[in-house]
Amino acid sequence: MTERNGLKAEVAGAGFAGLVAATTLAQQGWDVTLHERGEELRPLGAGIVLWNNSLEVLKAIGAYDSLLPHTMVPPFYETRIHNETMSLEDFDGLPWRTMTRKALHEALEEAARKAGVEILVNSEVVAADPSGTVTLASGEVRRADLVVGADGVTSNVRDSIGFEQERSRSKDGVTRLIVPRCKEELGGGDEWDNVIDFWNFEPRVLRVLYVPCNDDELYIALMAPIEDKEGSAVPINYEVWAESHPYLAPVLREAAKIENGRYDGYQTNVLKNWSNGKVVLVGDSAHAMCPALAQGAGTAMQNAYTMAMAVSKSHEDLPATLQAWETEEREITDRCQAKSAWYAETRNMSKGNQFTPE
Ligand code: FAD
Ligand code: 5PR
């Protein structure tokens, strides 16, 4: 049993950032309440790629072993333009894994419950104050030693305090879906175990990111410009997509059956500061980014973990500790955000992944 430290934390939002922050704080002795405005804990989106940073966080909080059987390491990350291979990478042994968001969310929820986090659903945080209070939609006001705003890109915690920020939106968006692997129907070869990023530019920009998550489930992200009404329609327009990517017909046929999908644009928010007094923002509330480097959740989990460890080591002057933590983490997160925005703007991911050395 962890020794309790007598400190209370209120965490807004049970996404990847909130679950990691809440679990780490509870494991370090805090009394933690996690508020989720939804009626149950569940992830948005479909599949996900994680790299070394978030995999290390999962190990540190004890969520890795239960997740591992539900994940996969594809042999290669392949990039094609008009179905011609541009690059085939194994990242020189750098750890990475693919999985469904559901599997990741379940492993994190299990870790949070094991750590003793109190999880409240149907509990929306409408505002926070730097002195250390949160106000719930019910009108209840709660006081804490630390308030964590992990309430995503539309954060009430952030907006009620008025953190200064710059925001920009992307010109493309994606429909993200989980479909059956269809490996035999696709031709059965080993190439279908790879991540394959299929880019087509002519006669129109339509891209399919193909990500096997395990033996049965495949994550596909169908990217089309926001202005392309047919390409961004949901359910997907089978004729349009199959004409562009005929070799993916079995997968696209499955995708077209899914009626409750969503086409999402992406945005980049750069905040001047991530904390104010006893309130700290982690994850998309602080640094939403384009998905090109697949590091939105990665940096969210990394920063949630390092923040929770920092405030647990030293709780004398919490606002100063939060500022020192931000100085440590800021550079790499800013770099990820800027590079992801550049890839989204230039569509240069089509030339293959050029970021391994970084
Ligand atoms: P969220 O996941 O948005 O979670 C916020 C939670 O808070 C939700 O549960 C929400 O219901 C709840 N909430 C919101 N408001 C309130 C409130 N007021 N009170 C209480 N609860 C509230 N990242 C990767 O690392 N790898 C990838 O492969 C990857 N692929 C991506 C693909 C696409 C197309 C996109 C758009 C993003 C991708 N990302 C990826 C980024 C990743 O999805 C996000 O960065 C990550 O989910 C952010 O986590 P979060 O916990 O900060 O926010
Ligand atoms: N990587 C992943 C992803 O879901 C997207 C991108 C890169 C895992 C979104 O389709 O480049 O947009 C990307």
Write up this protein:
The chain is of the alpha/beta class and 358 residues long. Helices cover 32% and strands 28% of the residues. The protein has 11 helices and 18 strands. It has helices at residues 16-27, 52-60, 64-67, 101-115, 156-161, 183-186, 238-244, 249-256, 284-287, 296-313, 318-346; strands spanning 8-12, 31-35, 47-51, 77-81, 84-89, 96-100, 118-120, 125-129, 133-136, 141-143, 146-149, 165-180, 195-200, 206-212, 217-225, 263-271, 275-276, 279-281. It has a 7-stranded mixed β-sheet with strand order 5-4-13-14-15-12-16. Helix 1 (16-27) runs parallel beside helix 10 (296-313). The longest helix has 29 residues, at 318-346. The chain is globular and about 60 Å long. The model has no long low-confidence stretch (mean pLDDT 96). Bound molecules: flavin-adenine dinucleotide and ligand 5PR. Ligand 5PR binds next to strand 15.
Main beta sheet: strand number and arrangement? Answer: 7 strands, mixed
- How do the strands line up in the largest sheet? 5-4-13-14-15-12-16
Bound ligands, named by name, code or SMILES: flavin-adenine dinucleotide, ligand 5PR
Radius of gyration, in Å, reads 21 Å
Average predicted confidence as pLDDT: 96
Helix content: 25-40%
Number of helices: 11
The computed structural class is alpha/beta
> Based on DSSP secondary structure assignment, what is the total number of beta strands?
18
Q: What is the CA–CA distance across the termini?
A: 40 Å
Listing every helix as H and every strand as E from the N terminus to the C terminus, the arrangement reads: EHEEHHEEEHEEEEEHEHEEEHHEEEHHH
Strand content: 25-35%
